[in-house]
Amino acid sequence: MEAVQDRAVPDDGVPRIGARLKAVRQARRLTLTDVAGASGLTKGFLSKLERDQASASVAALVRVCAALGISPGSLFEAAPSGEVVRAGSYPPISFGGRGLTEYLLTPSGERRVQALLSEVAPGGGSGAETYALPAEVEFVFVLEGDLEVTVAGEVTALGPGDAFTFSPGAEHGFRSLRTDGVTRVLWVFAPALSEGRAAASPSS
User: Fold this and answer.
1) Which CATH class is domain 92-190?
2) In the chain, helix, strand, coil percent, each to 5?
3) CATH assignment, 4-76
4) Where does the record place the HTH cro/C1-type domain (predicted)?
5) pTM across the whole model
């Protein structure tokens, strides 16, 4: 029996695995040359396999999966909801506030967790009114600059490398403490917010 069948694959209802293999390879930042070297298969065959234009023997598929660091069975499970978001291609979003440029880092359909990147201009922030969010945990990590976070009336100043975890159900808000330069902040919510940051509610 041939280890590899290099032929067109008919539309016979057999699960197509090419797109899954390609997605995993790209997520791991591997080239076809990398996978070819690790699996002992040719780049040409792997390219056809990713386009579902060739089929592989079990042994060949096992070698490909080993090169990618996945189990063969994972190719036939339900497709994962995750996806790679490359640097420089973050989708911009608008959650209100002022002096804010924000980006979504997790897939829009991901409900377990949500990560945002905020670039806050000097003096910018969530605004004068505080707000509460329908999530269980909110995590903030300051990548660059200085940020002030107020939760239930308690003020916390954060600098580069500082992390802060709190309950987003409490009234809270934030603002940049910088007089020049951008403050860059990573926010993580669990579970994900259904419609971004909730509309601000007046602080008491």
Assistant:
1) mainly beta
2) 20, 30, 50
3) 1.10.260.40
4) 21-75
5) 0.58
